[in-house]
Structure formats: structure tokens, C-alpha cells
Design a protein that fits this description.
By secondary structure, the protein is mainly α. The protein is 47% helix and 0% strand. The chain has a domain at 42-183.
């Protein structure tokens, strides 16, 4: 950070500079007490997601108690409205409707499909906070969390399903693949690299976000 701020004194124009020091390792690929989620009685995607959210609730609450704060709420949801966030994402996954803003008990500040990014980030924060409360001395790193979410949870399956809807809509909605890449990290969507096939150099019109 000091090297980056030092550029304010030396750079007279937009500058890219090399920093010849490697970042420290991100930690082990697995953590000491990964959470195993039991098979729910409702095998639908929505049912499995709801069951996961219920089982993670006490763990997420414990992390919030310890930290005195939460990262949940980007979508506009209150800390106790995780069920509504999950239901909104599940409705989009089940219906494939990328035009209608999901119905929620709280006000959503963005239009489709961008609101999906904020809903997904909130639910991801909830899962991360639940994992943070798991016992053990080794915390999961970023890659391990993604491997868990997209390899073992209904939430990961739900995000990939929404990703499929966004991919199918990209011919009619140029923002669809962008949103897909914002909600699904590199390497976790059907072998497609992030931003693959997204044209560069597009100048937004007055009706598009810049």
C-alpha cells in the first residue's frame, strides 16, 4: 500500500508500475472443520436452499455476535431477512425470469439483472459468516470457500442455474454475461472463462450504466 500511495508523488500521468515483492501465500486449500450439510427432505432446488439456510443460521448468528457486525445487507435486506433473499434468488432460478424484479419484503435499489449480483453477494456473505464460526484453528481461504460453495451446496447450484439463464439471455441483454461473471467466480461456471465473449470497447448510451 505504501508503494501504491508513493505513486501519487511520482506519477505525472496514468501509470502501471511493477512491485517486485510476491504477496504472502493465501493459506491452506482446506480448513480444519468443513461443514457437511445433510440431505433435506425437499429435493427441489428451492427446498434444498431453504434447508441449507436454516442449518447455517446459528453459525452465522454466532459470527455476527462475535464481530458485532455483518457484511449482509448490500441488497437492502435487513440482517434477519436472509430467508427473503434466498427466496428471491430461488424464484429467479426456478422461473428463469430476468425481466421482473423479484418480490421481496424490503426495497431493492437496483433493476434486473443487476439486482441479482447484490442478492447473491448477500447470501454469499451469510454462508461465509456461517463458516467463520466453525470450530478449528485453520480458517478457509477464498479458493476453499468457493470450492465448498460450488462443489457441495445448493447455493452454488442455484448460482450456476441463474448463470445458465443469464447465458441464454446474452443475445438480447448485453449485461447478462457481465452479471453472470459478477456472481460466479472464475473457474466455477461450466468451463467458461470470465468475460469470455464479452465485447470490449462498448461505449454506454445515456440509458446504460457507465
Amino acid at each position: 500500500m505504501r508503494a501504491a500511495f508513493a505513486l501519487l508523488d511520482t506519477a505525472t500521468e496514468p501509470t502501471i508500475d511493477d512491485y517486485p515483492i510476491d504477496a504472502p501465500g493465501s493459506g491452506p486449500e482446506v480448513w480444519s472443520c468443513p461443514l457437511n450439510l445433510a440431505t433435506p427432505t425437499d429435493e427441489s432446488l428451492t427446498g434444498r436452499l431453504r434447508a441449507e439456510v436454516d442449518r447455517l443460521r446459528p453459525w452465522a448468528a454466532e459470527t455476527r455476535r462475535q464481530r458485532g457486525r455483518t457484511m449482509f445487507g448490500l441488497s437492502g435486506a435487513a440482517a434477519d431477512q436472509v430467508d427473503e433473499v434466498a427466496a428471491a434468488l430461488a424464484a429467479v432460478a426456478e422461473s428463469g425470469d430476468l425481466e421482473t424484479v423479484p418480490t421481496t419484503d424490503f426495497e431493492l435499489a437496483h433493476d434486473m439483472p443487476f439486482v441479482l449480483r447484490h442478492l447473491a453477494d448477500d447470501l454469499r456473505s451469510y454462508y461465509h459468516e456461517a463458516i467463520a464460526a466453525q470450530p478449528g484453528d485453520i480458517a478457509p481461504n477464498h479458493d476453499a470457500l468457493n470450492e465448498w460453495i460450488f462443489g457441495q451446496t445448493a447455493f452454488g447450484e442455484l448460482l450456476v442455474t441463474i448463470g445458465d439463464h443469464l447465458t441464454a439471455a446474452e443475445a438480447d441483454n448485453p449485461f447478462a454475461p457481465l452479471v453472470r461473471n459478477l456472481i460466479i467466480p472464475e473457474g466455477h461456471y461450466r468451463g467458461i472463462a470470465n468475460f469470455e465473449g464479452i465485447a470490449g470497447g462498448h461505449e454506454p448510451t445515456t440509458d446504460e450504466p457507465s
